[in-house]
Design brief:
mainly alpha; 18 helices; about 75% helix
């Protein structure tokens, strides 16, 4: 049994790694389509919506029924879809190709994320083990984001911004997705605990709707929305911020996204460790306050007039390094609150709860990215990120309230 659990855990990590690269390539793609297809920031920002809205819609429609269709089948279907789309996108010569790409990634990720979150409950045996695996899984996700950003930079041509050579990276991503598909295909997964035998689809839906009767669940969904609103705005717009505000080369701007992802990975691996030592509310509150303070300390430094000619990572000003490192504070929040709510409900409801997590996260990501893009274009990059202090304040109030209800 332990060996089987190890194999499925590896499969979950691998799936998350693949989709980390695909999902978070949106920041790089937003920067590149502005250069290759002469679209505005506001036009480019809709790619976040083409990614997140299919995630939300698909999650809402399939979450309750996914255990009946099959968790493993769902993941295989998702991997097959993105494998095909990755090879198609290498021929892209118009902006609409990227809308189709991210719509496909969105639908596929909805299937993957619900399946992965549900599977964690099947392969762990305690709340702390659940929380720890959630933290490490989300940390591995950020390793994927980091690897993806670095991978894209190898295909960038700073001397030729109009070059489409960067599209060849999707051949590699298609191959990686295919490897993940084949590994999962030959990995067994016992799904019995994720469903109630003999229950009808109507009863599955009724059980899911009962989740909305819980004030704890509603508060959690608000937390998920607010957190992803902040997280996605930073992840998506960091490359553009570095390119247009700090005036760094395109390759360095994308690498900044990799540094941010590395900071996220470190923060989430640390959350996997500290969740075994401390109550989740202390970890989350510390991170929200720490991130808010870092915004107030770091963003003023970006207003300085730096000479960025011929700059590299070895001779850039301090702010170039400090900005992405703020991600260490932001990273542990999401896995901590996700694990808290999932571990507190029966396993047969975890698929439905995972679906709600994905829906509200996707909506938050879309709102955050579009709002940030609008403020960025009409005011400044600094104002766009200062704006995140509002949802962060609301998030702190919501998690404190959720903790009080849970302890009762």
């Amino acid at each position: 049994m332990k060996n089987q659990n190890l194999k499925i855990k590896i499969a979950l990590y691998l799936n998350y790694f693949v989709f980390a690269i695909l999902l978070n390539s949106v920041g790089t793609v937003i920067l590149k389509v502005q250069q290759n297809f002469d679209v505005t920031k506001s036009q480019a920002s809709v790619l976040e919506g083409f990614k997140d809205l299919p995630i939300a819609i698909c999650s809402f429609l399939v979450a309750s029924f996914l255990p009946k269709f099959g968790i493993k089948k769902s993941m295989l279907t998702a991997l097959l879809l993105v494998t095909c789309m990755c090879f198609i996108i290498t021929q892209a010569n118009e902006f609409w190709y990227f809308k189709l790409l991210f719509a496909t990634i969105g639908v596929s990720f909805a299937l993957i994320k619900i399946s992965v979150f549900t599977s964690i409950g099947l392969v762990t045996n305690s709340d702390k083990e659940h929380s720890s695996m959630m933290g490490f899984l989300e940390g591995f996700f950020m390793i994927g984001v980091l690897a993806g950003n670095l991978l894209f930079t190898f295909f960038m041509e700073d001397h030729n911004p109009k070059s489409t050579a960067w599209l060849n990276v999707y051949c590699i991503l298609g191959g990686l997705s295919l490897v993940s598909l084949l590994f999962l295909l030959f990995t067994p997964l016992d799904e019995k605990e994720a469903k109630i035998e003999g229950d009808s689809l109507t009863n599955d839906l009724k059980n899911s709707l009962k989740l909305f009767n819980s004030q704890k669940v509603l508060l959690f969904l608000l937390c998920a929305f607010l957190f992803v609103l902040v997280e996605q705005s930073f992840q998506t717009w960091t490359p553009t911020f570095y390119k247009e505000v700090l005036k760094l080369p395109t390759s360095m701007s994308i690498q900044a996204g990799a540094v941010l992802a590395g900071a996220f990975a470190l923060g989430r691996f640390l959350s996997g460790y500290f969740s075994k030592k401390f109550t989740w509310i202390y970890v989350v509150a510390f991170c929200i306050i720490g991130f808010s303070i870092s915004i107030l300390l770091v963003l003023p430094l970006t207003h300085s007039d730096y000479n960025m000619d011929n700059k590299t990572w070895l001779n850039s000003p301090l702010v170039v390094y400090l900005f992405p490192l703020m991600g260490v504070f932001l990273a542990p929040i999401y896995p901590s609150i996700n694990s808290t709510i999932l571990a507190s409900i029966p396993k047969y409801l975890q698929s439905s709860m995972s679906g709600l997590i994905v829906v509200f996260s996707a909506i938050g990501g879309t709102v955050g990215s579009i709002l940030t893009g609008f403020v960025f274009q009409n005011f400044s990059g600094q104002n766009a990120f200062y704006l995140s202090l509002i949802p962060l304040s609301l998030l702190l109030l919501a998690v404190i309230r959720m903790y009080k209800i849970k302890t009762k």
